[in-house]
Amino acid sequence: MRTVTVRLFARLRELAGADQVSVEVPENATIGQLRQRLQMAYPQLPVSMCAVAVDAEFARDEDNLDPSGQIALLPPVSGG
Amino acid sequence: MIQLTNAPIDYLALTEAVRSPACGAVVLFLGTVRERTGEQVTVALEYEAYTEMAERKLAQVEAETRQRWPVQAMAVVHRLGHLELAEVSVAVAVSCPHRAEAFAACQYAMNRIKEIVPIWKKEIGPDGTGQWVHPTEQRSEKPV
Fold first, then answer.
1. Which whole-number Å values give the CA distances from A55 to A46, A73, B117, in the listed order?
2. Number of folded domains that form chain B
3. Taking the CB of the first residue and of the last residue of chain B, which one, N or C, has fewer CB atoms within 10 A?
4. Which helix (DSSP H) or strand (DSSP E) does residue B74 occupy?
5. A10 lies within 8 A of chain B by CB
6. What are the sequence ranges of the domains in chain A?
7. Given an 8 Å threshold on Cβ–Cβ distance, is A56 in contact with B50?
8. Which of B92, B86, B64 shows the shortest CA–CA distance to B3?
9. Chain B positions in Cβ-Cβ contact with residue A72 (cut-off 8 Å)
10. Structural domain of residue B19, as residue ranges?
11. What was the pLDDT predicted at B136?
């Protein structure tokens, strides 16, 4: 297992009371596994509604997680 | 040209910046802070961004738009922070040889901004409380 830090924005930040959270993931985890771990550790976060970004690019659930990347959980966007 | 800013958007300067002798059309879109959404009354908006990613995604929107239409010049600026009613939250200015493509390019860019750029708005009501807008019909983005 290793610990990764996940940045949070907007409502997620307020729900967690922090602009980032830590979560343990297995070695060689996928983005989908990261989602599962996040949801277990932080049940108040609507993880399934959110996108995951790594190094400022959208990641898919089947992608491998680069634990050294900058990881972010993004709620549905509402710019404009 | 893309930009995120905490200062009021100088949309006249943006419009001037995209004018070109090669173009017969300039389209400027401004998103502005609206007081009423159905029954709900808004007195201000607060915008937040994942800045590094938002800049990258705005650049992607410009690149996609340029692939699809003969855009000569393009400026996209999104405001962040606290905005009062009628203030400009986003400006998209494009110039093209002809008007149909300029309208289409501007609309395409604006639609993509609302799909893929990580910016969020919080609506502040008359009682001072705020509510984040996170559209629920959308699971995430259209990647790529």
1. 21, 12, 14
2. 1
3. C
4. strand B73-79
5. yes
6. 2-74
7. yes
8. B92
9. 50, 53, 118
10. 2-132
11. 78
Residue A75 phi/psi, 5° resolution? -70, 165
Structure tokens at A15: 């729900």
Q: Is the residue at B93 inside a domain?
A: yes
Interface test with A, best of B48, B50, B138 (most A CBs within 10 A): B50
Q: Is B42 helix (H, G, I), strand (E, B) or coil?
A: coil
- Residue A23 main-chain phi, psi, to 5 deg: -150, 145
What residues of chain A lie within 8 A of the CB of B136, using their CB? Answer: 49, 76
For domain A2-74, say whether CATH 3.10.20.30 is its number. yes
pTM for the predicted model, two decimal places = 0.94
Examine residue B143 and state whether it is found in any structural domain, yes or no: no
Check CB contact of A14 with chain B, cutoff 8 Å.
Answer: yes
- Which tokens go with B132? 């984040």
